[in-house]
Amino acid sequence: MLTGWRDGGVAYTSLAGRIRLLALDGRVAAGTRLPAERELAAQLAVSRTTVTAAYAELREAGYLLSTRGSGSVVQLPFKVPVQTEFQPGFLDFSKATLPAIPGIVAAAQQSVEQLPTYLGDSGFDPVGIPALREALAERYTARGLPTESDQIMVTIGAQHAIALIARTVMARGDRALIENPTYPHALDSLKAAGARLVPVSVTSDGGWDELAIEQAIQRTSPSLGYLMPDNHNPTGVTMPVELKQKVLSLAARHGTTIIADETMGELGLGNDGRVLPFAAHGSAILVGSVGKTVWGGVRVGWIRADRTVIQRLVRARSAGDLGTPLLEQLIVLNLLRDFDSILDSRRAYLREGRARLERLLHERLPEWTVPHAGGGLTTWVNLGHAVSSQLALAARNEGLVIAAGPRFGVDGAFERFLRIPFSYSADETERGVDALVRAWATVGRHPFAQPAPDFASSVV
Ligand SMILES: Cc1ncc(COP(=O)(O)O)c(C=O)c1O
């Protein structure tokens, strides 16, 4: 966690600054005992005086409580206020989301008219209304993956699906393969299900580390693997077809159940965006959602798997919830009739957003490395310095909420990276970049600025 702590300033101040950030970021939890001064000095190859001075500075600022005989324990000198609502005018780039599609109100009105057909039933629906399961199965079939409706389970969004699969398919203590960086709340779900994580690297320029993924499966035989093979969040890269096939055949041989999260699978921006569902290449559980295509406010997702898996998931579901809301399901059913044109318009909008963000970043923050994202809603920018947490803190003071790189990492890595969405309007994107430019100018100069409030919000 201290890799790259030297920022060119006075050594003890730099060290104290980095430890303070780790505490503020929650990556070193309050209550954690820091290594003894002598031990840390040896590990960092600095003099003991440097560590003593860094600890003294942290103690003075209230970040460290040292007790004779029991060492130095991290604490926060104040309670970081948690806000559940944004201050007016704040931009929230911790969410890569699109504005709702224009047709949503009409689809909702239509749903209200269709509702009476369902009012005779209990309304508790743990598997999905038949018409929606049928429509989703037809869509998979049309996309090249023959599917029957009993292979579909409708869920309350993709997040619900991931968490349900994780706690059903895996036992506590099992290994789970995960991309690094990854979608943070999938990481949360796997951790909550007791997974021992086996991270494999994904980069904007190189994609998946093929050797690492092969070795991870061969050596650790994980019981689960969570992947985003098309338009990976946050990098936007897509796995080559040969690698998809290879991963699935290795997984089959080693008893690894692969979950492919296709929440953004159809948001490829390079061609027409059409892509074979991942399970067309071998056995995998697919997760889908309308959250990133229609609107995050329609909380509907789904799982496509073998019948036996669907039945297991349905049995396990009631421990957490009792079904997907009917009105929401009807909205999705109505929208599916014209889904390809919804996707086409989303991809056109995102292509514009991507070009705009790339242009603004090249102009205003030329020292950053901005990859050309192949799909999805975000770009994974390399800042060139390990200051992402600092930058994210400074951005809050400029009215921008953005998740720092380590939020997407398994082990606190990615301090040099920042995920920036290109899914916002021209005006919002410009304001966001303005805020980043202002924040960037302060980073490094005021390493001990007071933290902005921590927003109790999700990173999607
Ligand atoms: C890759 C990925 N999976 C799942 C989700 C969650 O989807 P939902 O809103 O359907 O729960 C998100 C964010 O929205 C995401 O980016």
From TrEMBL:
Keywords linked to the UniProt accession: DNA-binding, Pyridoxal phosphate, Transcription, Transcription regulation
Domain HTH gntR-type, first and last residues per copy: 9-77
Domain of life: Bacteria
Cited CDD domains: AAT_like, WHTH_GntR
One Pfam family hit: Aminotran_1_2
Any GO MF annotation of the entry: DNA binding
Cross-referenced Gene3D superfamilies: Type I PLP-dependent aspartate aminotransferase-like (Major domain), Winged helix-like DNA-binding domain superfamily/Winged helix DNA-binding domain
InterPro entries, per database record: Aminotransferase_I/II_large, HTH_trans_reg/aminotransferase, PyrdxlP-dep_Trfase, PyrdxlP-dep_Trfase_major, Tscrpt_reg_HTH_GntR, WH-like_DNA-bd_sf, WH_DNA-bd_sf
PANTHER family: HTH-TYPE TRANSCRIPTIONAL REGULATORY PROTEIN GABR
Family from the record: In the C-terminal section; belongs to the class-I pyridoxal-phosphate-dependent aminotransferase family.
Protein name in the entry: Transcriptional regulator, GntR family
Lineage: Bacteria, Bacillati, Actinomycetota, Actinomycetes, Micrococcales
